[in-house]
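Q: What does the assembled structure look like for these inputs?
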Amino acid sequence: MIGALQLSFSRRFPTGAIIQVDDFLIPEGRGVTILFGESGAGKSTLIRVLAGLEKPDDGRLSVGEEWWFDTEKRIDVPASRRRVGWVSQDGLLFPHLSVAQNVSYGMRGGSKAAVKSRVADWLERMGLGGMENRRPSELSGGQQQRVALARALASDPALVLLDEPWSGLDRPTRERLRSELRPWLREAEVPVLMVTHDRQDALALGDRMAVMSRGRLVEQGEMEEVFCRPESAETAQLLEVETLARGRVLSCENGVAEVDCRGVCVVASEVPGLVKGGEVWVCVRGGDVSLGEVLLDHSSLRNQWWGRVVGLRQEGVAMRVELDVGFPLVALLTAASVEVLGVTVGREMVAAVKAQRVHVIPL
Amino acid sequence: MSSDEWQLVVFTASMALMATLCLIPPGVVLAWWLARRNWRGKMVVETLVSLPLVLPPVVTGLLLLKAFSRRGVLGAWLEEQWGLEVVFTWKAVVLALATMSSPLFVRTARAALEAVDPRLEQQARTLGAGEWRVFFTVTLPMAARGVMAGALLAFARALGEFGATVMVAGNIPGETTTLPVAIYHAVQLGQDEKAWHLAAVAVVVSFLAVGLSEILVRRRSG
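A:
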């Protein structure tokens, strides 16, 4: 992409629902941005506005120095001239064309032989070698999505838009696609914006995250920022994970993994895909963290960390306690517990989590 | 079948074919506008398109006669500009057949175009295809069977067209006499056997045309 993308728009639907997005931003350069939110939040509309498939009532969209849309200046670059690769939930392969014809549809220029070899390349990369002459109807759901992705990438876009690309598939296929396409997406030379309501997608693929809820852009930023320091309880609830920290695997055997998070040893249950030395996300739900005044001996608790309370605030009926144990950790306690324990900002306390409750996601 | 009868069939079929072929390009364009666009007054256009289906064919023929006769609005202009004479020539036959078949074709083609998932067209646009390319590479191929079915229906209708034809083209043997006109004329002259012969031919040809159209429609939705 030639520069940072900035989008603000509003759209009112006949049903009365309103979508209002202010200053959605994708910074210049590569990386995967996750557009996260529950169904009906307005994520697909945002994607379609970016692609030029839907006109907002009012808005501005600029990519670097170029203006793609501006209601005031009456600029509206049509979808066919925005170099955007759009993959929707249904793949939308052209049923009357072969796989090769689908993939080459957006390719510009080049001799027939050159196009043919590029198509073969892409199919190879997507694990679809030799399927040039098949029809979309002969492919499985997972294969169709791969062709759709190859088609979008092969058109040499400036921005890739994935609208819940595998939510229509069954879970095993989804997980397989996610892990197989992860290298592709994270290493793509163009920025990728992916819409999902699946936390796993967000954690496994995202560098940045933008959260939408009920038609509004609630917040956006680097993954860790949005997860650890969500600006609203709403976001925290949507994400369902209060603590997110980067770590490196120290060991994994006997069903147990030890992870180094900024010098602190975190014990978690093993998951497939972990390798010693590999980078991971460590996730802990606030409700799974308990606080105490002393370390417990003779306990099954493998994770007990001394830390200092750096923040304390009410969140609905719970109290949100932010600690620094070497990495930022959030505990959700009842107001009563906070009072009985005398939790105050600045106090040193022991935070504990069962290894089973620490969730690790390989990167 | 005698050579006269054969000549009638060939003439009628070729007039119907020409009318259908002339109808297809503007018909598809009109069908596309009706399928994909909205505008104020769209209802008026839709009504006009359906009119030949509902008006008595002789009335349609009369209107065509008024417009295309040598003193008519269009007829005068055509004669001045290109020395073209329309009424009571084979051109009038084609005109009458095309006009009477147009509602069938446009409506069938429109339904076929509407059945194409617009999201596929949107997908094509995001891949860089301009409107023409979207139409020729996605919309039309996917609607092709339906459009063909419409063309066959139009052809079948044109084979049987009588009222408008006899009005604007008349009954000039060898020049403008079509199969239906000849049947009518034969009955009027009391030539029953000839009339029945021609009628049988008309039934067979129409049956084939409509049957083929049905098969095409069925395979599309299968």
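The interface with chain A takes residues 117, 119-120, 122-131, 137-138, 141-142 of chain B (CB under 8 Å).
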